[in-house]
Amino acid sequence: MPETAETVRDEQTGQPFVVIPEGKADILAAWFSAAYSIAAIAVLAWLLLDTWSGQYAALNRILSSEFTGSVKDNTIFKLVVYTAIGGGMGAAINNLRSFIQWHAERRAFGWRFLWKYVAMPPLGAALAALVYGILQGGMAVFNGGNAIGSGNSITSLSAWATGTLAGYGAHKVFVWLDEKVNSLFKVEPAKVTVPDVTGKSPEEARQVLINAVLEPGESTSSTTTDPQRIGKVIGQTPPPGTEIVCNSKVLLVIGVPGGAAGTDVNPTDLVAKVDEEAKQISQNGTGEESKVGAGSGSQTAEGQQIKSTDQGGV
Questions:
Q1: Rounded distance between C-alpha atoms, residue 40 and residue 27, angstroms
Q2: Which pTM was predicted?
Q3: Where are the alpha helices (DSSP H) in 109-215?
């Protein structure tokens, strides 16, 4: 790829991407996506009018007339249908927005994203119905009863508009749903008690920590005048008996002879230095890798995943 390749940031996701010039396959995929999205909007618009008029021609062809007759006057059924149609239309509209942005304006459409354009209208319909159900359920809790309206024109338009917005902003809806799932089904990470490894050799201490489902962290040396403590663990952070999340790091202090150069570190000073990080380890409830110690790893640079082409949206 040329060094002068343009880097752009997707307007919806905020992720940076390198603009890769289109090939013939990319152009064909772009126009197929646009035609498919326009056709989806046309079919969904026909379904909307069919449902609004009460004819249910599409349902009559798929299902029995007896079933259609039993549900066509059901308010909840009609509102869910309006919402799902809106979700599909919103997702198809977002497809066209993405087509214009990445093909017409930047000429950087990627054929490998064709599956996303095909999947988005049905996905948007299902997502919109799910969101509408969650919102109506929340309103029912606050109202102390059934939150579904009377099924008049205003209520039907509201359901369709809600679905359209959910389908168009599917990326943000997924983030919102993730937050809801995390809050409703929060799983507390498993915790273990830090074992006492003082007096052991570094190899023995590391094995004890691994057996306790903990990760040996950075080893720091400290001078000692006791020959029996030389080459042994003479300190650890967090201290023994502390309850921390599994796979957290435990820092070790190894004793060295008092005259060793560059190793004159007091264990008390070391514990004070990493006290804040130790508290973070013991209180970490996310199950993520601890950030204690200089050797605990590094974060991925912002904007690093740029060698790709995306078309916005999800």
A1: 20
A2: 0.53
A3: 114-143, 153-168, 170-184, 202-211
Burial class (CB in 10 A: 0-12, 13-18, 19+), 88: buried
| 312, 96 contact by CB (below 8 A) | no
Question: In Å, how far are 39, 85, 158, 172, 237 from 33, measured between CA atoms?
Answer: 10, 19, 29, 22, 57
Local confidence pLDDT in tens for the 314 residues of the chain: 344 557 777 666 667 777 788 899 999 999 999 999 999 999 999 988 888 887 777 777 776 666 666 666 678 888 888 999 999 999 999 999 999 988 888 888 889 889 999 999 999 999 999 888 888 776 544 444 454 555 566 788 888 888 999 999 988 888 888 888 887 777 778 899 999 999 999 999 999 999 999 999 888 999 988 888 899 999 999 999 999 999 999 999 999 987 543 444 444 444 444 455 545 544 544 444 433 333 333 333 333 333 334 444 44
Residue 193: phi and psi, rounded to 5, are: -90, 135
CATH of 191-283, one of 3.30.10.20, 3.40.50.300, 3.20.20.450, 3.30.565.10: 3.30.10.20
